Amino acid sequence: MRTGRLTPRQVDVVLEVLLLGAVASGLTSWAIGTSWAKAATAIHALCGFTILVMAGAKLRGSVRVGMRRGRPSRWLSVGFGLLVLATISLGVAHTTGLWFGVGYWSSLWTHFLVAFALLPLLLWHIFSRPARPKLTDLDRRAVLRAGSALAIGAVVYGAQEVVVRVAGLAGAARRATGSHELGSLQPSRMPTVSWINDEAPTSTDPANWSLDVFGKRLDVAGLARLTTPVVAVLDCTGGWWSEQSWDAVPLRALVGNDSARSINVASVTGYSRLYPFSDIDQLYLAVGYGGQPLRRGHGAPVRVVAPGRRGPWWIKWVTSVQLDDRPSWLQTPFPLE
Ligand SMILES: Nc1nc2c(c(=O)[nH]1)N[C@H]1C(S)=C(S)[C@@H](COP(=O)(O)O)O[C@H]1N2
Ligand SMILES: [Mo]
């Protein structure tokens, strides 16, 4: 790749655009479970590979100059660069299926955590440089060079996908979101995951479970008599998905003629989410899968099944489902606990 003729500042601008593009597309593919996830994931991979393609030009340019200038902050910059490379490597490990990480620290989750830790460094890197890059650095030549770097990035990305398929790596069977299949229709093989800081309650006895749905107290045994099988995919943002036949009751069947702006579902742990009321036909309360009751880790005795929504929306250990007048966009995109 002959990006050699770009000035170091131009290389920096292109890299910054790519990094910001990677952040935006990564968050998008993470938050959505629909077909749009595929485009976001592809753009994300393209940004990542193109950053690798540009790494040589970066080393020859401002890295060399910066090391020679010898300010103490150069080590922060070196750390930043190494973390970017680590983030991309973890992304490749996840997508190819070569390495899934260790337990809770799945390669995708670690990829996300490192990337998140990088954000302040990225902003510092953009704003702290004495000669701040200007948009005018993106002249015709720079755009052409950046374009050819993108093209090479796309070729490398394509090559990865071919290798993954030819070598029969686990990454060949990824979902559009980038997640890998685990334990479908075998609940005992499905992982249990908590979001950041949540924990299963000690007692999940269905006989003593307090459940209030749209202002009415329900008992779990009564709910269990209303279930129908709902085949749906739980796609965790940690990078795996699992399809189960959930024994579930549609919320539509429980709401009667009432309606509101939103539906608030809360777990006994305090974890909660607001769903737009228009989702009512895509929301279920499940008490089991494949005819067996849910395991404690899977949200026993009652959990949300939300086909089309990512894992964080599948609230476990549900204790309350209520109509709510707050708009559902008035909440953080992901739960904070
Ligand atoms: N109460 C509660 N519900 C929760 C979570 C949580 O931490 N607390 N984690 C969510 C996330 S991120 C996922 S991926 C799924 C995981 O469900 P599982 O443990 O049955 O696989 O539960 C969701 N529901
Ligand atoms: Mo998750």
Descriptive account of the structure:
The strands form 3 sheets. Strands 3, 6, 7, 10, 11 and 12 form a 6-stranded mixed β-sheet that branches. A 5-stranded mixed β-sheet has the order 5-4-13-8-9. It starts with 7 loop residues before the first helix and ends in a 13-residue tail after the last strand. 41% of the residues lie in helices and 18% in strands. The protein is an alpha+beta fold and 337 residues long. Strand 1 and strand 2 form a beta hairpin. It has helices at 8-31, 36-69, 74-96, 107-128, 140-166, 220-224, 252-255, and strands at residues 101-102, 105-106, 180-181, 211-213, 216-218, 228-235, 240-250, 262-267, 272-276, 284-289, 292-293, 303-305, 318-324. The structure holds ligand MTE and molybdenum atom. The ligand Nc1nc2c(c(=O)[nH]1)N[C@H]1C(S)=C(S)[C@@H](COP(=O)(O)O)O[C@H]1N2 binds next to loops.
